[in-house]
Amino acid sequence: MQKDITATARPIIPYEHPDLSMYLKLMKENAIRLRYRKKAYTQHDAYIQQLFSSENPLKQQCDDLVRYVAEAFEHYAMWDYTHAYYPGRPSQQTARTDAMEGCSRVLPTLAAWLSQQQEDSPMLQGITGKPLDVTSWIHKAFLAGTDPQHPGYWGTLHDYDQRTCESADLALALWLSRKQVWDTYNTTQQRQIIDWFKQVNHCQTVDNNWHLFPLTVQLVVKALTGEDHVEHVRYERTKAFYVGDGWFRDGAKGNYDYYNAWGFFYSLYWLDCIDPAFDPEFIRTSLNAFSERFRYFFTPQGLPLFGRSACYRLAAASPLLATLAVNHNAPRCDDAATSRLSIGETKRAFRVSLDYFIANGALKNGAPTQGVFSDDPRLVDNYSGPASSFWSLRALNIALFCGDKIGLWQAEESPLAIEQQDFMFDIPAIEATVIGTFKTKEVVVIFRSDYTQEQSPPSRRLETQTYWKKMQEILTGRAERPKNNLLRKGITCYSSKMSHFF
């Protein structure tokens, strides 16, 4: 029996229901994007694909992935590194918001790398050997992005604003780089930055995983300044979505999907890092419970991928890395709740997931593609823009931050569960059965409940964008794509062979 969660009415969000004024704004920002966009940065696409196509040390792969991303970011960045116009299909938000994501979703990766460097102001060496001053980039971005007089200002936040989501990534980047960046600002500069972040305290969000975004900002503000604006009611609402066995439902009527990996547990992991006393028992116990079963999902050739935001696929290993980190830092979970996950198995799961997708074209133009492998307009949600896919680097961010601490880079890989034997088990909380076949190295997840009863062969297929919708998208700069979340189409069986996405 699935947990009954009290639902709230979904608000009417302007960018989902644009009026004439919204369309005019969209077209204006699209024109600005066309003016400032740069040629695609393709210099290292072939190199990075080859790096992940053959066996190379994981540390080298991760370091070069940071270099690959950083070089392209410098190429695309605008207005003191506050925005970056990456090539790709637009979101429902304005092109300006899409460009903000080009900063907000890249800075955590640069800051995670920076946080582990021994020098005060280290230079990152690009793949070409060019020195990249990421400390300076981050320093400039926060000053410019929070200055209303600067062309790169990140703006005034409002209810249900995409920038509330982005503020969480920015706050995390600021916390990660606090030694090299935050501590170098004077009092006036720090106040300017904090005042911008404190806007989240007055903004409403959609009632799902979005509650974690203001919480991340508020915990960072508290850690950096001592000001306590933490909205514990948001945290309690987030916990209300927890159904057991390590799984969250993404809102009262939402899905059970990989947002557990790259959404809920990614954010909860960082909350635990920022304030280890916040709620260690629940965060660590639920994380262990999730990873105990989730580790079975990984194969050398794909994942049983289901749900929305398929373009975040490189981040699937986030909770496995987070589990190792929290158990290593503070092994305070009850023995019964502690995952049997080993560092060798985690390293292999992380590496093979990167290898599989990147070797098959998941990186292009200096960014993760808008698809599962190469770009695929069928799989780009309307809320996703050209830089949204940088959430794919969330597992990398955790690895960069904790890899040295937990011995990730030096560990010997050990076989995945599917490389050892057949298996079959249930996840009762989400009414799912997981089946692994050793001989074929295939993992299948079967849901025993339909999300919708309204289904037919045509309704279950991945739809393609019509010519007219594509033209409308180009003219307005607003996403006009079909919704292809297969869970909501009535598909209940997902294989690591990933044939749904070919």
UniProtKB/TrEMBL annotation:
Domain DUF2264: 60-415
Pfam families, alphabetized: DUF2264
Domain of life: Bacteria
Protein name: DUF2264 domain-containing protein
Organism: Photobacterium aphoticum
Lineage, uppermost ranks: Bacteria, Pseudomonadati, Pseudomonadota, Gammaproteobacteria, Vibrionales
